[in-house]
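Run log, item B.
One chain of 81 residues. Sequence copied directly from the ordering sheet:
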Amino acid sequence: MNEDEILARIRDIFQDNFGIEPSKVTPEAHLYEDLDLDSIDAVDLAIKLQEMTGRRIKPEEFKTVRTVGDVIGAVESLLAA
């Protein structure tokens, strides 16, 4: 799965679970400031990414995620593991 495919899947997750327009979900978008996610949403997002990749996300790794680009990087590292 390449970066564009990951971004497309992430956009689907944001639209389906958080009601966020896919056009707002860009690599530069900040999860909390731009997309109005809260800590509960972040947990839900981590669960959806685990389902998407079939791999467990370590909480300490996900704490550093701040932007959609960070989410893409986290998914890439999970898929590479």
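Observations after the first pass:
- The radius of gyration is 11 Å.
- The mean pLDDT is 93.
Flagged for discussion on Thursday.
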